[in-house]
Amino acid sequence: MNGRGALAFVRRHGVVLMSARGPVPNLAEAIAGGPIRGSWWAHPEARRIYRVLEAVSGSRQILVCRLVGGKVTFVHRRLWPALVRLAERIPRRGLAAVRNEHTARGRHRAVVTAFPRWVPKPVLKQATRLSVAEATSRFGADLVVKVSGRKVE
Distance (Å, rounded) from C-alpha 49 to C-alpha 28? Predict the structure, then answer.
């Protein structure tokens, strides 16, 4: 799987974990073509996995956050209006956008943009037009429960 295939994977599933195990698909394992034991960094395909994950993380179509279980999560743009509409039901820390920045010294630094500062205005407008029921339907009621820990009414 290359960057284009990985973006299609995230689009199809809507919400995926970067590499952790959890209630949604795991992109690192999809890239590797199967289960990964231990850290993906030790996998024979680690360099390719890294390149593809970086491509996905850098896409304007992807929100990188810690939505699912506090783990790095990719959310496709098609679900952003529903996510914004359901924000009051989701822990705020899971809604912050996270991106890695390379420093002049060659290190990585996490840059966090609080919710809703990262949300584009057109997405905010779309979110206001959605009912909670519509947003839940788009996002998936079972996923809302997994993310929020409570049933959507």
Answer: 6
Q: Which residue has the tokens 């990964």?
A: 36
pLDDT in tens, 21-62: 888 999 999 999 999 998 998 898 999 999 999 999 999 999
Helix (H, G, I), strand (E, B) or coil at 104: coil
Say if residue 25 is preceded by a cis peptide, omega within 30 of 0.
no
Q: Which residues contact 77 (CB under 8 A, 6 or more apart)?
A: 60, 61, 62, 63, 123
Which tokens hold the place of 153?
A: 């009414």
Determine the Cα–Cα distance for residues 119 and 139; give it in Å rounded to an integer. Answer: 17
Q: For 4-66, give the secondary structure using H, E and C.
A: HHHHHHHHHHCEEECCCCCCCCEHHHHHHCCCCCCCHHHCCCHHHHHHHHHHHHCCCCEEEEE
Q: pTM of the prediction?
A: 0.91
